[in-house]
Design a protein that fits this description.
Oligomer: single chain
Strand order of the largest sheet: 3-1-2-5-4
Low-confidence stretches: 8-17
Shape: elongated
Helix content: 25-40%
Mean pLDDT: 81
Number of helices: 6
Largest sheet: 5 strands, antiparallel
Strand content: 5-15%
Length: 188
């Protein structure tokens, strides 16, 4: 079980009350309630009358989208040894920037971290562009944009495995502490 999870923020708490349009039509205990209500709002903005059928369609759309985006393909393990041998001076890094994880590569980590300014360095592994590209493909369903990914369970498990195998990165230079560390026990 991964040791770090993003803590819920105040704005992600359950929406309750009658101020939210159509909130009475969606079960308050439904974990996808907010997404369903947003979909209903978008449907309404497009001129669709929100009746029971529209609510059922919105629920089906949200559940299908959730199932598609969270169904992870079996992880394809990149050949780390071959990549490291080819790129001995390059590193693939996993850093936390806010509540996202950036997966990137660099041959000059101090310089790279000066420009990226991460909140926390989660893991480092030897490898270059080929390994980074394979990892971006592997975690594509979690992609937030560019090199940034949501910290879903598959990515968390991968980082845990790297930390177990290679040890924690022990990197504090160029890190902007924000008090939300996934690994508060990192040496520094």
């Amino acid at each position: 079980m991964p040791r770090f999870l993003v803590q819920p923020q105040p704005w992600s708490q359950k929406n309750v009350g009658d101020r939210i349009p159509h909130s009475d039509k969606v079960d308050p205990e439904d974990p996808l309630r907010a997404n369903i209500l947003i979909t209903l709002h978008r449907m309404e903005l497009e001129g669709i009358e929100i009746d029971e059928k529209a609510v059922e369609i919105a629920k089906a759309m949200v559940r299908r989208h959730y199932a598609e985006t969270h169904a992870m393909p079996p992880p394809r393990q990149p050949d780390i040894a071959a990549s490291a041998a080819a790129d001995k001076k390059h590193w693939v890094y996993y850093v936390r920037c806010g509540y996202l994880i950036k997966i990137g590569t660099s041959s000059n980590l101090p310089s790279r971290f000066q420009s990226v300014r991460p909140n926390e360095v989660l893991a480092l592994e030897p490898g270059g562009q080929e390994l980074e590209t394979a990892l971006h493909r592997q975690f594509k369903p979690l992609r937030a944009g560019g090199d940034y990914f949501h910290p879903g369970p598959p990515l968390q498990a991968h980082i845990e495995e790297l930390r177990d195998r290679l040890g924690p990165p022990n990197w504090v230079n160029s890190v902007l502490k924000d008090g939300h560390d996934f690994y508060p026990d990192n040496q520094g």
